[in-house]
Amino acid sequence: MIEDAGAQDFDVVVIGGTPGGIAAAIAAARKGCRTVLAEVHPHLGGMAASGLGKSDIENRDMIGGIFSEFIARVRSHYRETCAGDCAEFDLCRDGYYYEPSVAEKVFHDLLAQEGGLIRILVSHQLQRVRVQNSTVRAVVLGCRETGKTMTLSARAFIDATYEGDLYAMAGAEFRLGREARSEFGEAHAGVVYYDYEEGEFLPGTTGEGDGSLPAYTYRLCLTTDPENGVALTAPPSGYDRSLYLPYFDDLEAGRLSAPKKLMEGWGYYPEHFDTLLRALSVTELPNRKIDANINPRPLAFPFPEENAGYIQGDWETRERISRRHREIALGLLYFLQNDPEVPAEQRKMARKYQLPRDEFTDNGHFPFQLYVREGRRLVGEYTLSERDVTRQNGSAEFTAFPDRIAMGEFPIDSFPCHKRRAGDARVLEGYLGMLNHITRPYAIPYRIMIPVQVDGLIVPVAASTTHVAYSSIRMEPTWMALGQAAGTAAALAIEQGCALRSIPIPALQKNLKEAGQVLEPAVATCF
User: Which of 213, 270, 343, 440 has the fewest beta carbons closer than 10 A?
Assistant: First the structure.
C-alpha cells in the first residue's frame, strides 16, 4: 500500500463501526467534535446490521440515550411501512426487533443528522497506530478497495472494535482467555461445566484459567417468503456432512426437546422441539424474516475452537477463519434441508427457511460480520467482575460506583469454549447459558474504558472486565450506552484540555443524564 502524504487532523477518531462505535461518533459530534468513524467492512452496524435482528435486553428501563433513539426510529420505520398491518408491526416489538437492512438504514440516518461533523470510512482497516510519550497520536488506515492508506491524527481515539485492535496496536495491556476462579473470586470462572437448567456445576469443573474463547458463529437472517428466498441448491465449499451427524445423537438423547422453562425472547419455537431444527434458535421478525441463532445447547454444536488464532491473526487469517465459519453455518442449513438421513418432514420444515434475496445483496445474501462474542479485554483502571454483576449473599443492591456512566442488565451468557469431549453428556465445556437467576442490573464504572498506561484512548466495547462479566456486558444496547459515554468523554476531555483518565466525572454524568442515559435503576431490581 502507498501511504498518502500528510496527516488529516480531526478531534475524535472512532475505529469500529459497531453500534458502540456509532453511538460514540454521534455523541462526540453532538458536542461539536469533528469526528471520523472507520469500519473494516463495507457496511456499518456490526452485529445489529448483520443478522442479530433483536436488541438483547431483558430490562428496557436500564438503557436509554442514543440506543432509545435507535429503537424509536426502528419503530417509526415499521409504523410507516406496515401499511396498516398491525400484526406485521407488532413483530418489531416496539422497535426492538428489526431486519438487518433496517438497522443499517437507521444507523446511517442517525449519523447523517449530525450536520456533516462525522466522516464515515467503510472498507478501511487499521494498519498502524502511532504512539508518542505513551499517548496515541495518529492511526494509519488502509482502504481495502483502492489499496491506498491515510493517516488520521486526533486529540482523542475510541476503540469500538469487537476485537480490541486499536489498543492492542497502541501497546495497551489486555487479557485474552479466561481467568481462574481464584483471581477475582468468581464462581463461574475458568474451566466449567454448568447445567443451565438445574443451575449446578457438573464434574469436570476445575475453575482453572486458560486461553480459551467462547465460540463464534454467524447470526443468520432467513426468510419464510418463497418469493424472497434464495435456496441452497448445492452444499457450500468444504461441506462435510459428518460434522453434523452428532445431532442425531442429541435428538435420540432428548437434548433437542423443549427447555425446562420457556422464556420470552430466548429463541424458542415449539414446532421445532424434538426435531433436528432445534439446532437453530429462531425468532420471528417483520416482513417474514427470521433471526436464526445457532443453538449452543446440543453437544453437536460445531463451532467451538474454530475461532482459534482469529484475534491475534492478520487480516488474511481472520478472513480465512471467517470463511470457515460461513461454510459451517451454510453447511448446517444445507444438511437440515437436504440430507437423506434427516426425516422427510423435518427436511420439509427446514426448507421453509431460505437466505433472503433483499438482505446482504453484495455478500451472497449472507451476513458480513462474524459474531465475535469475545476477543481481547482491556486491562483498565478497574476490572468489572462476576461479583459486580451478580447478587451477593442474596442482595439485589448494586454497587453505586462514583464514576458510573451506564447500566448493564443482561444475564451472564457465554457460548461453549470446547467441542464435545469424552464423557460430556449434558453440556459442552464453557457454556454459561443465560444465568438470569443470579445476574441483576448493575452500574458500569467509567474506569473500565480507560487503559492503565496508554493515554488519548478510550475503549467502550472490548473493555476491562473478566471473561464472566464480559458475557453479560457484551450486548449491543449496553455497548451503545458505553459508546455514548466514550464519545461524550472524548469531547469533554478536548474541551477541558485534560487526559481522558482525568476528566471531571460529575460533568460527564451531567451530560449523560441530560442526553437520556440511565446511570442507576429507579428501584433496586432483579430478574
Answer: 270
